[in-house]
What we know:
Elements: E1 10-14, H1 19-30, E2 34-39, H2 42-54, E3 59-63, H3 69-83, E4 88-91, H4 106-128, E5 139-144, H5 157-177, E6 182-189, H6 195-207, H7 212-222, H8 231-241, E7 253-256
Helix pairs in contact: 1-8, 3-4, 4-5, 6-7
Bound molecules: NADP nicotinamide-adenine-dinucleotide phosphate (NAP).
Amino acid sequence: MTGTQDTAKTAIVTGATSGIGLATAELLAARGHRVFINARNADNVALTVKQLRDKGYEVDGTTADVGSPEQVRSLVTSAVDRYGTIDILVNNAGRSGGGVTADIADDLWFDVINTNLNSVFLTTRDVLSVGGMRDKGWGRIINVASTAGKQGVVLGAPYSASKHGVVGFTKALGNELAKTGITVNAVCPGYVETPMAQRVRQGYAAAWDTTEGDILTRFEAKIPLGRYATAEEVAGLIGYLASDVAGSIAAQALNVCGGLGNF
Ligand SMILES: NC(=O)c1ccc[n+]([C@@H]2O[C@H](COP(=O)([O-])OP(=O)(O)OC[C@H]3O[C@@H](n4cnc5c(N)ncnc54)[C@H](OP(=O)(O)O)[C@@H]3O)[C@@H](O)[C@H]2O)c1
């Protein structure tokens, strides 16, 4: 890919101790970028940094909850102190969450929206301002949304609402920044085999009074490709969007879903 010849840049990948975030951090680091990561669990951040450094990559990180304005500011400041101003931001951290809407507790709704949507605003704003991106004339902001950000997911109203919000934010900011050299795009995974996907299958198995194996079979039957995507396949598109050659892709929401979403 042409993007592999890009010069080394500084990237933040949120929620990079697991799944799609981890695969993305590794891909960007393998391309020679300096990658700063975060998650809430300090042990997992330290372990991930060590594992990636052991492979020879330039990686550091800190604990931060992306739903906290103070912790997001601290995350971005730490990344700048460590590696300089930010060229690439991957807003990946997120959570699942839903249920029968009439029974959803306030705390669940607020936390899903805060973790998945408010976080994207907070991190993006701070990377553009204190992270220095808006003064650089080049930047890449990639938001991990979901096919649930384009269609409604049964028993997933908070999640679907949050991801539709991420897609809307992406389109608006992508247009706002289009002439600045900063592109803003969303990647919309369908079903991706990660720890989150396992938790989602557990939730549906409980809600529909069946086994996780049965849920897996039902979900795979909905995917034209017949299988979940891998975290590496999603990271591949994120890495492409982060490259120089993707410079004319702006304000888009692109699916990695095995044909699940035709939109
Ligand atoms: N897997 C799928 O099928 C799928 C499909 C569509 C979209 N997505 C989206 O893809 C993204 C990654 O999902 P995944 O499947 O890779 O999930 P995952 O395996 O559960 O990993 C989530 C990562 O985010 C971190 N995280 C969660 N909440 C956080 C918070 N409040 N602040 C900071 N970090 C946080 C987790 O670490 P800590 O718990 O230590 O904080 C972990 O590193 C999410 O935005 C998700 O909605 C996933």
